[in-house]
Structure formats: C-alpha cells, structure tokens
Amino acid sequence: MDEGRRKRIEEILDGAAAAGRNQLLEGEVYGILDAAGIPVPRHETVSVEGTEPALEPAIRRLLDAESASGLVVKIQSPEILHKTEAGGIAFASADPAEAVAACRAVVTRVRERVPDAALSGILLVERVSYRPNLPGSELLLTLRQDAALGPLVVLGIGGVLTEWYGALAPGRTTWIASARDPIFEAETVADLAALGPAFRLLFAPSRLHERAPVDPESFWPVLRAWADLARTFAADAAEGRPVLEEIEVNPLAALPGGGVTALDGIGRFAQERPRIRRRRIDKVHNLLAPRSVAVIGASAKAMNPGRIILRNLRTAQGVAYGKIFPIHPKEEAIDSIPC
Fold it and tell me: Is a pLDDT exceeding 70 seen at residue 278?
C-alpha cells in the first residue's frame, strides 16, 4: 500500500481512538475502504446536533449526480450495531425534502428506542441500484487477524441469506486464505469460479445469468487491495501502526456492469499490538501432510463425526487411496473403504 493511502487510513483510526473507541463507525469503514481502493457509494456524514444547516446542502450534493435515485439514511453510534432494530435506517427518494424528513424521523426513532445511546452523526449514502437477495447479487468480504495464522481474507456468498447458504453447504460457501498467500501477488486473475461450487454463482455465467454477475477481471484488483489492507495493518506489521482486527463488508453488492461496491460495513481496531506467538509448523507436519491415516469411531449406519472425517479425507484426496484405514470391529468396509 502506498504511503498516501496508508496515512489516510491511519488518520481515520487515530480519530476513532481520540474519541475513545475501538469500534469503527460505518462512515469510518467507508473511508478506510475508499482509501484502500475498495469501491464505496458516494456518502457524507453530518452531525446530529445542529444538523439542519448542514443537512440540506449535503443531501443536494449527493443527489446532484445524474445516476442518483435516492438516499439511504443511517444513524451513526458506537453503541448501535444493529441499526434496523433501533429504527436507525431509512430510505428516501431523490426529493431533498423527503430526505430531510427521513433524517429527522431516524433521529426521533432512535432517541425513543435507545434513549441512552450516544449519537455520533447521520450517514447519508447514495442509493445503489442492484438486485438484492438473488443468487450471485451479493458477496461477503472480511479481513481479520489471527494470533497464529496472521492476517486472513474471507470471501463468500453475502447478503441476508449468508447464514442460510452456510447452513445449506457447511464450509463451502466461503473461501479463507492468508493475506500473504502468493495468489495475491499475481497480476493475472485467479480462477475465482474454481474456488468452489458456490463461487460459480458469482464468477461464472449460467442459465440464470448470461454473464457472470461479478466480472473476475474487475474484481481481482479489489480482492488484492483487500489483502493488502489486511497485511498493512496486521498485528505483526510496522511498530506503532494500529491493528485492523476485523472489517466485514456484507453485502458487497454486484452491480449491473459486473463491478462491485460495499454497502454495509463494520470494523474494530486496536492501538496496542498483541503478542504474537510463533507456531512451529514442523511439529505438526505429519498432521498436515500425512502419508496414511487410521480413523477410529466411524459409524457404518449413521453420519457421526468419525464418518464425516472419513468422508472428508476421501473427498480431499490428500491421502492416497489404500492409505486410509477405518477401524471397525464388525464392518468390512465403510463408504467403500476397506476396514
């Protein structure tokens, strides 16, 4: 990451720290993403106190664009993570008067439902035209720091159906990689559709989508920028630099032209650097790359944990056939693997 982008992000984190917070406001998340090269909607933040003089000019600036179809109004508070339940979100048309009324209504509702919450401002966001809640229309993008594995990148199916997709195909609707994986150094686009069956929804054409909902060519720089952000603000990066512990964007909307833009984002950071305990990979080499495996406790009649382990070993093909040994007192074979 170049120095200018890094300094812009550090200023945002320093501002949040000066306010006594380690939780980022959504406007601050937008600012970090924008500085890192991740597409975000046009947006402005106005103060809740003395809002009226600044509100209408900010609304008109956002609605001036030819593409403006309306605004999303979001309350900003470190104490309100779920804006919908608090009444802290509203949608307005391209009419400035309606947008002003929506802002007033949001503040009134939040103060009624969460009277003790400190309100940091109102985030005004241009309304993005896309088709929500449809297969291939929304992505999940996360970065987080792991004490053992370092900075991680998570890519997956996003939107309000994220948990549903995850329950339908456990572990197969997200892709997790180290932000330091050599894959992110490549200028050429990785085969993103090959990351798993779920990713064909996003990065490959189908009978549902004549073109891939997300263009791999335009998305690849976004994913590389995301990994760069995770590396630059990792726990073991330069001394004195804040640590981005986690940022989650859900959804990252797939736009009609094949591009993406971040809609909702949350994040947290730390000014103090955690102690990094180095792990000796050589001590677990046989576990990570075994030549043979014996599985004790796999049931031939039910899908118990042992049977799941056995199937995973066979599916992954990391151990050669004939080198996987289910141990069972009665059965001759389980899932066609001799006992």
Answer: no
